[in-house]
UniProtKB/TrEMBL annotation:
Name by which UniProt lists this protein: ATP-binding cassette domain-containing protein
The ABC transmembrane type-1 domain, residue ranges: 1-211
Entry keyword set: ATP-binding, Membrane, Nucleotide-binding, Transmembrane, Transmembrane helix
Protein location: Cell membrane
Stretches assigned to the ABC transporter domain: 245-486
Membrane topology according to the record: Multi-pass membrane protein
Length: 530
């Protein structure tokens, strides 16, 4: 298990995200249990074999012809057991996805995160019914397997019975033909009985052992595949922060998806810049940010750090230079301290670095209010665990990136849950970081917040469609400018009374304006409209 966990943690992200690998990992986890059971079963099989072999020796001593007959008696049961084991394994493999889905349904019903929506939307009944239907389908498959196993066992038993009758018949013939004395025949009969009685449990043990071996083979396959798809360990060393990161005609496609997530994108980012990636949902912003970090490898084109292809660089060195706040950042079920310090596990987590990271991200205020401060467990699913709000969790994620203190900071929607003041402080802070030489890559939908970016890249359907500074893009009056105006108007427009006459239209932001349009008089005078 340890090997599987270690290797899985090192596989390329694209492999980790693939359904096939996830499926194999699931099956491999059964393999880890099987590996433990195999040791116990092997001992029992060994014991059974010793008893069986002793009986066989007795029979060979009495008359050599008795041995093949005994083996003939053993064969049908062995065949039946192997057949049932194979059938059961195949069924488990076929039904694996079904079982995984059912586990997901059960988890959703028991999970605290999905609990509010389940209740308000009344979705629980739908999930329970789906779970029940799928459980019944699985039970049906179990019944089918049991019936098939019973048929195989009956057939194997009948064949074994015939073979045993043959052995006893032969014994009678041997006695009648005076090839062996009656006493020896009696001994042979006892030996045959002992051997066939042992055979039943031996067959059961071998059956389990065989099935366990098949799951164990999956464990080995998963470890092997994880080894094959692991992030390469070697490569050129990266000893300093890159002065320039460039993408040259980069295309990238997720496994099993026809449309490319990125299509021939070329751009350059220089050290100490704030770069914003903007564009509609699914445009490829997150994908692009991950390619910059070496988390994905381009299908075509290349990513260069200071002119060196990222593929040729030592990946651990590349990642060493990066701090990442993902859109779906992890809420680690650990203490507040570990939640921050996990970004750099080798660093001391009790000094100025921790306090600075917390202060820079607004997480210090959160920690102050926690019942046990930094030692509070942030996992309400455990006894004594505390829960944070969405924005407080986001501050924790920002504190992690600050604690890591890397040269390149990648923030994917970092302020979506922050209150306005914390958001403003965050954007002030990233300007400071850029002035200090850190490169900031910001993925965001808040177009007003990218006004201080040195470069803005506007993506749509995987293509880079516009780029420039904030002022340049407004001057250009293209997609970015239109979307920016739309957002700005949301702030500028006064809420309309349902009864009063319609408000006059709000004057749009002129190209080159760097602030949202001013609020109309009605708002500025505090007239909030009844
Ligand atoms: N792991 C994945 N496997 C398959 N397809 C993916 C995966 N991640 C993203 N995609 C697809 O790639 C495209 C680009 O996704 P990406 O997350 O880069 O967009 P985005 O611009 O960051 O979107 P958003 O603004 O909604 O966060 C989308 O069509 C998405 O469905």
């Amino acid at each position: 298990m340890l090997l599987l966990l270690r290797r899985s943690a090192r596989v390329e992200l694209a492999a980790m995200e693939s359904g096939d690998f996830q499926r194999l990992l699931h099956s491999a986890q059964r393999g880890t249990v099987a590996a433990r059971q195999m040791t116990r079963n092997s001992l029992q099989v060994l014991h059974g074999l010793v008893v069986f072999a002793s009986a066989a020796v007795v029979l060979v001593t009495l008359h050599p012809v008795l041995l093949p007959l005994l083996l003939a008696a053993a064969l049908p049961k062995g065949w039946g057991a192997a057949r049932s084991a194979r059938r059961s394994y195949r069924s488990t493999q076929t039904w694996l996805e079904h079982a995984r889905r059912n586990q997901v349904l059960a988890r959703l019903l028991l999970d605290r995160d999905s609990a509010p929506e389940l209740r308000v939307h009344g979705a629980a009944e739908y999930l329970v019914e789906s779970f029940d239907r799928m459980s019944r389908e699985a039970a049906g498959e179990q019944a089918r397997l049991s019936r098939a196993a019973a048929g195989t066992t009956a057939l194997a038993g009948a064949l074994a019975g015939l073979a045993a009758a043959g052995v006893y018949g032969l014994l009678v013939l041997l006695v009648m033909g005076s090839w062996i004395p009656l006493a020896a025949a009696g001994t042979a009969a006892i030996a045959v009985r002992t051997a066939t009685a042992q055979l039943d449990s031996l067959v059961q043990q071998v059956n389990s052992l065989y099935e366990q071996a098949l799951f164990y083979a999956d464990l080995e396959a998963a470890c092997r595949m994880a080894g094959e798809r692991k992030v390469p360990g070697g490569g050129e060393r990266v000893r300093a922060a890159p002065a320039a990161i460039s993408l040259s005609e980069v295309s990238f496609r997720y496994a099993g998806v026809r449309e490319p997530a990125l299509d021939r994108v070329s751009l350059e980012i220089t050290k100490g810049q704030i770069v914003a990636l903007v564009g509609p949902n699914g445009a490829g912003k997150t994908t692009l940010s991950r390619l910059l970090c070496g988390l994905y490898t381009p299908e075509r084109g290349s990513v260069h750090w200071d002119g060196r292809d990222l593929r040729t660089l030592r990946r651990a060195d590349v990642h060493e230079r990066i701090a990442l706040v993902s859109q779906t950042f992890t809420q680690w079920p650990f203490t507040a301290r570990t939640n921050v310090a996990i970004a750099r596990p080798e660093a001391r987590a009790d000094g100025a670095r921790l306090r600075r990271a917390a202060a820079d991200s607004g997480f210090a205020d959160v920690v102050e209010r926690l019942p046990r401060g930094w030692e509070t467990l942030l996992a309400p699913e455990f006894v004594g665990g505390a829960e944070l709000s969405g924005g407080q969790w986001q501050r924790a994620a920002l504190a992690r990136a600050a604690f890591r203190g890397a040269d390149i900071l990648v923030y994917d929607e970092p302020t979506a849950a922050l209150d306005p003041q914390t958001e403003i402080e965050f954007f002030d802070r990233i300007q400071e970081l850029a002035r200090g030489g850190q490169t900031v890559v910001l993925v965001t939908h808040r177009l007003a917040s990218v006004r201080h970016a040195d470069q803005i890249f506007f993506l749509d359907r995987g293509r880079l469609v516009e780029s420039g500074s904030f002022a340049e893009l407004l001057d250009h009056d293209g997609r970015f400018a239109r979307l920016y105006r739309m957002q700005a108007e949301q702030y500028a427009a006064a809420p309309r009374s349902r009864t009063s006459a319609p408000e006059p239209p709000v004057s749009p932001v002129q190209p080159g304006d760097s602030a949202p349009a001013p609020a109309p008089e009605s708002l500025r005078e505090g007239n909030r409209v009844a």
